Structures are given as structure tokens and as C-alpha cells.
Structure to design on (271 residues):
């Protein structure tokens, strides 16, 4: 219930942001963020709402000036395909989004997120060799960025991988490391909440939405992250031509409601 309430708060914020801006680019990103939030809820109704949000943006994503919208749309689109158990098409979309992010956007954190989802996807497809390779790359990036939530997410997927492979020693060691990271994150959050500076910042926060200036648009178009050694596995195929971004269509969400949703792929299980 706590998680659901938090997602509801996030959705309300995205709706408010969408109302306050006239920027088509910003509206598209708000719809992407809201769609991912719905996917994280995990039930069939929320997946249907995510489809309603992401579908229209996906159809026109080639019309946007920058690549930020394309990478966001492909990330959400791939997640939704995974929820519909359309795993091969999800892999194509996510690999395409990773390719654009890596070559043009320069957002290393998003690269790490893409790798984590692709690692989860490889595990779901029982491609354990690729899953191990991808997840280790993602964990390395998350450590470089001091991104503890993503580290915990990757570690939880690695634990599931070791369980499937029957590597009991690695499973226990990895699970213990994951638990330590989770404890560390909770301590950091508690320290932040108890800080008077944190409370002052929260009280001063206001939603400010403005049109992107030309400088910001150029920055959104971005520079390649290829200058950084990201250690992305060759098996993902970043050097291969990108598939057509509009060749795959999401099938009707109603047909997937008969399929049991086992977990939300956006974040690690709390179990």
C-alpha cells in the first residue's frame, strides 16, 4: 500500500507538470514518466493506462528534435512489452533505446538502467550467459555513479540469476551484499529526512516549468557517451544497425490480462 501511495503521488506530480507546460517535448516526457509509474503498479488496469499514455507518444517520437524523448519512449515501451510477456520485441526496443542513449545522449545513468532491464529480460528468456554479462556491466556503472538504488536492483536480479544457475555460494554472497546496500540506503534516507537543511529545501520547492532554450535543446540532443568506457557487452549488438522504431505494435492490453503478471520489472522485489 505504501508503494502504491507513493506511485499515486508521482502520477499526480506528472499530471500537474503536464498541465503547466506548453512544451510538446516536456509533455511527452511527463507522459513517459507517468507510463513508467503505472507499469510499476503492476496490475492489468495500470498497464492499460500506461498503454494509453505511451502509445500516442511512441507513434510520433520521430518528430521530436532531440533524442531524450526517443530514449524515454523506448524505455517505457520496452517495459510495457515485458509486462505483456512479449519478450523478444521488448528486447529489440530496449536495445534500440540503449543504442541511441549510448551513441547520442550521453546519459550514463540511463545506460545503466537500460542494461539492468535488458539483464532482467535476458534472465526471463533463460539466456543466463548474456544476463550475467549485462548485469555485471550494469552493476559496475551503478557503482561508478554511486547509484545505490540501481545497485540494489541489479543485485536482486543477480541473486535470481544465481538461484537459477544453482550457484549457492554466489547467491548467498550476493544476497548478503544486497542486504548491506539496502541497509545503507535506508540509513542515508533517514539521515536526509532528519536534516534541517533537507526540511528547508522541501519547504522551498516549487514546480517550475519553462520552455527549453536553444542551449538546452542542444544539450538534450546531447553528446555521445562513447567517450566513457561503459563496458557494454558486445552481445547486445550496439554496433549493428538500429531496427525500425515503428515496426512493432503493442497488442491489445486486454489479451494480456489472461496472463498472470508475476512481477514489476521496474524495480526489485521487496521479497
Amino acid at each position: 500500500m505504501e508503494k502504491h501511495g507513493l506511485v499515486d503521488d508521482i502520477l499526480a506530480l506528472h499530471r500537474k507538470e503536464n498541465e503547466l507546460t506548453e512544451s510538446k517535448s516536456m509533455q511527452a516526457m511527463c507522459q513517459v514518466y507517468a507510463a513508467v509509474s503505472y507499469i510499476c503498479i503492476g496490475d492489468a488496469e495500470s498497464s492499460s493506462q500506461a498503454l494509453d499514455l505511451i502509445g500516442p507518444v511512441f507513434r510520433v517520437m520521430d518528430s521530436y528534435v532531440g533524442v531524450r524523448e526517443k530514449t524515454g519512449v523506448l524505455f517505457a515501451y520496452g517495459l510495457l512489452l515485458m509486462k505483456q510477456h512479449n519478450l523478444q520485441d521488448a528486447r529489440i526496443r530496449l536495445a534500440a533505446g540503449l543504442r541511441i542513449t549510448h551513441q547520442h545522449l550521453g546519459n550514463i545513468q540511463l545506460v545503466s538502467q537500460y542494461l539492468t532491464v535488458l539483464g532482467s529480460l535476458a534472465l526471463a528468456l533463460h539466456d543466463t550467459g548474456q544476463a550475467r554479462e549485462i548485469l555485471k556491466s550494469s552493476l559496475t556503472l551503478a557503482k561508478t555513479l554511486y547509484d545505490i538504488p540501481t545497485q540494489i536492483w541489479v543485485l536482486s536480479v543477480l541473486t535470481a540469476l544465481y538461484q537459477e544457475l544453482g550457484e549457492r555460494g554466489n547467491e548467498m554472497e550476493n544476497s548478503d551484499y544486497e542486504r548491506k546496500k539496502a541497509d545503507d540506503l535506508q540509513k542515508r534516507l533517514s539521515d536526509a529526512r532528519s536534516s534541517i537543511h533537507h526540511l528547508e529545501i522541501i519547504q522551498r520547492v516549487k514546480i517550475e516549468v519553462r520552455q527549453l532554450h536553444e542551449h538546452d535543446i542542444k544539450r538534450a540532443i546531447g553528446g555521445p557517451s562513447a567517450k566513457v568506457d561503459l563496458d557494454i557487452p558486445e552481445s547486445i549488438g550496439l554496433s549493428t544497425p538500429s531496427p525500425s522504431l515503428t515496426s512493432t505494435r503493442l497488442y491489445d492490453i486486454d489479451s494480456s490480462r489472461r496472463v498472470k503478471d508475476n512481477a514489476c520489472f521496474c524495480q526489485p522485489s521487496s521479497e
In short: The chain has two domains: 1-106, 108-207. Residues 206-222, 240-271 have pLDDT under 50 and may be disordered.
